[in-house]
Amino acid sequence: MSTVYQQLPALKSLRDSSPVGLPRPIVYKRRNARWRSPEAAVISSFHLPMRSFEVKNRTFAEDIKSLRLITAIKTPYLPDGRFDLEAYDSLVNMQIENGVEGVIVGGTTGEGQLMSWDEHIMLIGHTVNCFGGSIKVIGNTGSNSTREAIHATEQGFAVGMHAALHINPYYGKTSIEGMISHFDSVLPMGPTIIYNVPSRTGQDIPPSVIFAAAESPNLAGVKECVGNDRVEHYTSKGIVVWSGNDDQCHDSRWDHDATGVVSVASNLVPGLMRELMFAGKNPALNSKLMPLIEWLFKEPNPIGLNTALAQLGVVRPVFRLPYLPLPLSERLEFVNMVKEIGRQHFVGERDVQALDDDDFILVGRY
Questions:
Q1: What is the pLDDT of residue 32?
Q2: What pLDDT sits at residue 59?
Q3: Which of 16, 45, 306, 348 holds its CA 20 to 30 A away from the CA of 322?
């Protein structure tokens, strides 16, 4: 809407008296009408979705909704910082053998934030190619840039992932309406889990956004980290929820109707985490696992997990910076916890050991 101005009559004489050949002064005032901001012009995307319905093992949202145990899988590295696919394959196989039903590839635990998009999509495709017939592959293709989220999600589904994990725009936060538009841009592509973790994003995804997203048949559910009150708020209205907190997942599952958990601890003890999700209420087992879960999150995830898997001999002790291993005192504590819980419950076959500082390789360029 353009603003209409008119000349001030009081300055007419000044204008008329200006010397010949010089521009006359023009003064404008706004009309006394109430000014209203124009509505933002939202241009519908003219891009057709880059999707195919001729996909092997095509999965729908209903197939994802039934998953009880999903592991946020660790990404192992070679000494030069590239992916250690041999160790990765072994780790995924151990998840499958112990009854895990799905893996999040390139999530926070898998250090997607330290990957290029080429690495990210390659790892999703590799996982689908090797294990897609045995386990559901959920690619973390979310981003705080809607353009990047769209592009990565198109590529993820093109290489065969069964579902996408999407976070709300972080750091450069947006409005409630902006969140809805962000999720609306990716939901048409395929089954989607929305991930709410305000401790990392700095912004909660309120229920109004989830209810708006739930109008899409592609919303599989929510990975919720706010707490069990929020979990029950959704489950009571028919929305599928996975707890994003290992320390709360037992109660989420059995007291608040969560479908299951997206777990970090299941990287280490997948069989025990399956029992926790499938075998009914088990406060004794939950209490037994609590010291391990608390240890895992003494420092920001995935620092504890990376340290633990290295000490179990399942992955090489290689860290992409800025992550560093836990200090020696914590590494010794982990050794004792493995012995108390039972080495047979943990992944791998080597004896657990407390690694020295010099055993770890820290990689800043890769």
A1: 53
A2: 85
A3: 348
Query: Residues of the chain whose pLDDT is less than 70?
Result: 1-57
- Count the neighbouring beta carbons within 10 Å of the beta carbon of residue 151: 16
- What pTM, to 2 d.p., does this model score? 0.86
| Tokens found for residue 333 | 């504590």
What whole-number distance in Å separates Cα of residue 214 and Cα of residue 64?
15
Query: How long, in residues, is the chain?
Result: 366
Q: How many of the other CB atoms lie within 10 Å of CB of 199?
A: 9
CA quadruple 115, 117, 118, 124: dihedral sign: positive
**Which residues in the chain belong to E strands, given as ranges?**
5-7, 28-30, 69-72, 102-105, 136-140, 163-167, 192-196, 219-224, 241-243, 260-263, 318-320, 361-363
Q: Are 106 and 125 in contact (CB under 8 A)?
A: no
Q: DSSP class of residue 112?
A: G
Map out the domains of the chain as residue ranges.
59-279
Residues with a catalytic annotation lie at 195, 223
Pull the structure tokens for residue 309. Answer: 């898997």
Spatial distance between the Cα atoms of 119 and 141, rounded to a whole number of angstroms: 12
Angle of helix 146-158 relative to helix 117-131, nearest 10 degrees?
30
Cis peptide before 322 (omega within 30 of 0): yes
